Amino acid sequence: MTLVQAVGAIDAIAGVGYRIVIIAARCLPQKKPRVNRSRQRLLPSDVTFASMKTIVLGAGVIGVATAFYLRERGCDVTVIERETDVALETSFANAGVIAPGYATPWAAPGMPAKILKYLFRPASPLIFRPTLDAAQWRWIGRWLRECELARFRVNKQRMQRIAYYSRACLHELRAAHPFEYGRSEGYLQLFRSAYDVELAQPALAILRDAGIPHRELNGAQCAAIEPGLRWARKAPAAGLYLPDDEAGDCAAFTRELRAICERRGVRFRFDTRVTALDVRGGTARGVHVESAHGSETLTAAAVVVAAGVDSAGLLAPLGVRVPLYPVKGYSATLQIIDERKAPRAALMDEALKTAITRLGSNLRIAGTAELGDRQATLREQSLRTLLKVLDDWFPHASVPSSAQFWVGRRPMTPDGAPLLGPSGIDHLWLNIGHGSTGWAMALGSGRVVADLVAQKRPEIDLDGLTVARYHG
């Protein structure tokens, strides 16, 4: 679990900065989402689910999972993707961790102080780049309000509700369609110091209260679970092990799921860019697209927006304003050269918020949250932080010069939970805003949205998981 308690002294230092930012954000015009609060109208009487043409925008793990479940419910599904294949953007080289117990909003008590604490350190898990972008400051203003303890608890509960459901959906799918995607079991959190252990106590209390299986470990016990830690530069002060959590290659999984979808009749249109949503009379009618073959309008009885950080731009002209902002994350993937000195599964460096994941014969180190740069460009300081974490814990597992670096733009909401379901426009649906936990929430989110499109009752409560939470 993310550790959310901060040192009081640092909080005091951060207080002035916190107030300045919140005041600046409040001075900007606050745009409230303009959405129709009424329920989505039913399908026309001549449309059945077997003939219901549905378009899904985006072929990341979220979009492909949505297409899979829509097809299961009998819909005629087409997926539109601007890239040449599935999972080539945010789903491509993420940490690969599926840890519902760790699903935690970044808006947490003490987090503003933590940003200040790491502001001038060379190895930092958090990077803030202030700009003149009004959308950035509105998002930050909302994010700061969500850092209150009461809001944090509510938001975490919402995220875990969809994450645990999603893991159950994943296990069900895997039982029916076994395939390889570098899966490993167990998740070990490493604490560098007694200070980190102290900060962990509130998170441990939540684990105990929820009855989530876990083990608190000393350094030697960490090495018993991950023998490669015997070669660490310094032994961990302690650890926390969640045996039921897991990891796997998100991109490999998405490619396999695409193959299943295609065998069932789902169509994928790659190299196709969505220029606008076709909405007339308050109802979604399809999408306008461009490709090498020119411009055209594709009609549909329902449209699902699962286009990651680009979703906000597609929705804004329709008056549907969603508080999404791109938060960059980085990863490095390296080939293992010594099995004995490499990790067996997935770990998290709690101090630097960086994951180390075993993916078959490779290692992936992923971390850093960078707010303020919308471009998918690599930042050398962030890459150095990744390699430092690997060298600290598994210095002989791989050769740093072999690293393949990646950066992704994660679509974050201020409170951490995704936006699922009705958009406020009839037959236009949302599956967006999963942030850094998209892989952990993908199957459950896809299933929920498919149920709503097919006018079925979802299996979980959607309170706090729809755009309606931003109405107040």
UniProtKB/TrEMBL annotation:
GO MF annotations in UniProt: D-amino-acid dehydrogenase activity
Name of the protein: D-amino acid dehydrogenase 1
NCBIfam families documented for this protein: PRK00711.1
Family: Belongs to the DadA oxidoreductase family.
EC number(s) given by UniProt: 1.4.99.-
Keywords: Membrane, Oxidoreductase, Transmembrane, Transmembrane helix
Keyword field contains Oxidoreductase: yes
Domain annotation FAD dependent oxidoreductase: ranges: 54-452
Domain of life: Bacteria
Record-linked Pfam families: DAO
Any GO BP: D-alanine catabolic process
Segments traversing the membrane: 6-28, 49-70
Gene Ontology CC annotation, any one: plasma membrane
